[in-house]
């Protein structure tokens, strides 16, 4: 009696890994999309333009493919401040390095600021058009002529209508993007989510609460600096400064009887404890540094690339 032949083993599926830039004008949902793709918050979101100021890397490994996402500041169309010039340099630097670009727009909309971003995208990279906020489009039939107009603007590699808040849409996007990743080894461990430090994420979370709780009162030229970070067993002691340009801005943040600053601190501490899975003691100060957003030296000292 002959032994049955063993089944041929499946060939090893080669690993894929690539850098993917997420670009678009401010407030089209880039950071929300990045957080959905990574499966955890790594980039802050708010209704205020220019919330994202740093190149933030989010990582997600799905089967044999590792997706390394780079969130970028929205392109700034006013180049007068040093901060704006720095943000745009960051975007250009990202685009030179990546394998694939996700150009995020709001489904059914395309304005002058979107056109300016599109004009700056490299011709030698595949660009996927992400029509985000699909849930806000009431008549899907209206998307067909809009899409035809978009296809006339550039030969997009793919067109993906989605809502970054829907898990099924995000899962579908991974399948669409995978073939565009080069066959090569992974850059990060399989369970990595971001290349940013806890200290950086802490400063971003405080800045997000700052913008969300001050609404449109506070100009975007405010930043957060971590002054002290001490680990005491399961407890983290964090001291941070909110840096603003004017005394009036300081008053806005502190609020009547210090109530607003207390709320910024309380909400930041709760989110930090959730993120770090441990107790956090957070101390916040507000400091006035006139003209920091126009000073290359100040920008470098506050961690801007």
Automatic annotation (TrEMBL):
CDD domains: Era (cd04163), KH-II_Era (cd22534). One of its GO terms (biological process) is ribosomal small subunit assembly. Pfam families: KH_2, MMR_HSR1. Keywords: Cell membrane, Cytoplasm, GTP-binding, Membrane, Nucleotide-binding, Ribosome biogenesis, RNA-binding, rRNA-binding. Residues 24-31 are annotated as: G1. Residues 50-54 are annotated as: G2. Residues 206-290 form the KH type-2 domain. The keyword Transit peptide does not apply. An essential GTPase that binds both GDP and GTP, with rapid nucleotide exchange. Plays a role in 16S rRNA processing and 30S ribosomal subunit biogenesis and possibly also in cell cycle regulation and energy metabolism. This is GTPase Era.
């Amino acid at each position: 009696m002959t032994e049955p032949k063993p089944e041929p083993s499946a060939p090893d599926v080669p690993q894929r890994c690539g850098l993917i830039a997420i670009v678009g004008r401010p407030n089209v949902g880039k950071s929300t999309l990045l957080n959905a793709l990574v499966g955890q918050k790594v980039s802050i979101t708010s209704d205020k333009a220019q919330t994202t100021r740093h190149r933030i890397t989010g990582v997600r490994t799905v089967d044999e493919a590792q997706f390394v996402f780079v969130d970028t500041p929205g392109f700034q169309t006013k180049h007068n401040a040093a901060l704006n010039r720095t943000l745009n340099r960051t975007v250009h630097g990202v685009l030179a390095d990546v394998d694939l670009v996700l150009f995020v727009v709001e489904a059914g909309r395309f304005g002058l600021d979107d056109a300016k971003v599109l004009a700056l995208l490299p011709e030698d990279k595949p660009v996927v058009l992400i029509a985000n906020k699909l849930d806000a489009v009431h008549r899907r039939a209206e998307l067909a002529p809009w899409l035809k107009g978009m296809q006339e603007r550039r030969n997009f590699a793919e067109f993906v209508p989605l809502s970054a808040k829907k898990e099924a849409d995000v899962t579908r996007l991974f399948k669409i993007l995978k073939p565009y990743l080069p066959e090569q080894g992974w850059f990060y461990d399989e369970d990595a989510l971001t290349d940013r430090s806890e200290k950086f994420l802490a400063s971003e979370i405080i800045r997000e609460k700052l913008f969300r709780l001050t609404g449109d009162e506070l100009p975007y030229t405010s930043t957060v600096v971590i002054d002290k970070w001490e680990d005491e067993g399961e407890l983290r002691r964090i001291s941070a400064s909110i840096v603003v340009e004017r005394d009036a801005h300081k008053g806005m943040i502190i609020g009547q009887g210090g109530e607003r600053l207390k709320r910024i601190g309380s909400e930041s501490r709760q989110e930090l404890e959730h993120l770090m899975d441990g107790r956090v003691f957070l101390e916040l100060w507000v400091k006035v540094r006139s003209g920091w957003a126009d000073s290359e030296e100040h920008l470098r000292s506050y961690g801007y690339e």
